[in-house]
Amino acid sequence: MTVSVYDEDDGLASALEGVADALGADGVQSEPAGPEALQFTIAGDWTELSGLVASHPEVSALVFSLALDIEVAAAHVARVRELLSLVNERLWLGHLDLWPNEDTIVFRHTLLIPGREQASDEEISMSLAAGVSAMDRLFPALKLVIEDGAGPEAALASCLFETDGEA
What we know:
This protein has helices spanning 13-25, 77-88, 121-148, 152-159, and strands at 30-32, 37-43, 48-56, 61-68, 95-99, 104-112. It is of the alpha+beta class and 167 residues long.
């Protein structure tokens, strides 16, 4: 096994430029959030999501994060964590988490790009699509748990169904 040593001069600046280009091609405007991150807003089916892509050159990775603009009150934290756990069991890429310092729900996915300067447009699009999809599936169940007091399993079961055909 070969371990690469981080070289501060290399960084992943071109990887973030590639992310900005891919976002722009999808009509999503981004702006720098420090020297190693981009921030943006992306539309989901239910609400807008705040996004951040941070580079971690020490491990040749990009971390994609999407946050819901919903505060989770202390009274709901245990049920929301259970709901996130149930949803995470069904995710094929990334995971959902409750950030304790901000009481907000975040999707995170780390994309490794060793030996490359940039991720492909497809990798970037798939990473973001996975996050938006996860948040879109979570949102209605989350509202049921927070606003209606539903149990996590019941809330998720009522929201995770697939339809055949068109109405």
